C-alpha cells in the first residue's frame, strides 16, 4: 500500500481488535476527544455499512444494563457485526433521505428523537474533485436538515442563497429535526470551499462546532469531519 505505513497499522489493528473496518478508529478518536456518546444515548448512524461505527457506538454505551440504542441505516444491506455489538443495535436497509422524520423518531428509544447522529455518508467517488466535493456537501446539508429540520433550512437560506444545496421538498410537513436538544452531530465531508459555509451554518445552531481529520484517515483522502456539539 503506497505511502501507507499508517493505514497499514490501522488495518492490522482493526483485524486484531475485531473491528470490521479501520474506520472504527476514526469514531474512537472522536469519542475520546469529544465524548459524543454517553450511557443511555440514542444513536443514529447514517451510512452505517460495513458496521465499524455501529461497533464503536455500542461499546461507547457501556454495559447492556446502561440502556441506550444504536440504529444504523444504509442503502446497502448491513448486519450488526457479532463482535462489539449487542441487542441494542439494529440496522435498516433504506434511503434515509426518503424516510419521513416521524418514522425515524419512532426508531429511537423513547420515540422522541436521537441524542447523537453520526453521518459517515459519502457519494460514489468519480475522481472529479469539484463534483465529488459538491455531492459530499449536498449529503452533508441533507444530514444537517435531517438533524435540525427547519432551523437548518432557514439558516442555509440566509447563508447559502441560490446554491441549491437543499431540496426545498426536504422541509415538508414535518419541519422538526430528529436530533434532540443538547444532542451531537457528526458529518463527514470532502474538503472544499463549501465545507466552510456548512460550518458557518452549524455554528449558531450548536454550542460548539469543530473540525477533525482523524489520524486513521488515509493520507490520500480529502475527508474531514465536522463535529457539532450541543444542539441549541
Automatic annotation (TrEMBL):
It holds the Pfam family FtsJ. Keywords: Methyltransferase, rRNA processing, S-adenosyl-L-methionine, Transferase. This is rRNA methyltransferase 2, mitochondrial. PANTHER family: RIBOSOMAL RNA METHYLTRANSFERASE (PTHR10920), RRNA METHYLTRANSFERASE 2, MITOCHONDRIAL (PTHR10920:SF18). The keyword Cell cycle does not apply. It comes from Nyssa sinensis. Residues 19-230 form the Ribosomal RNA methyltransferase FtsJ domain. HAMAP family: RNA_methyltr_E. Belongs to the class I-like SAM-binding methyltransferase superfamily. RNA methyltransferase RlmE family. The active site is at 188 (proton acceptor). GO terms for molecular function: rRNA (uridine-2'-O-)-methyltransferase activity. It comes from the Eukaryota.
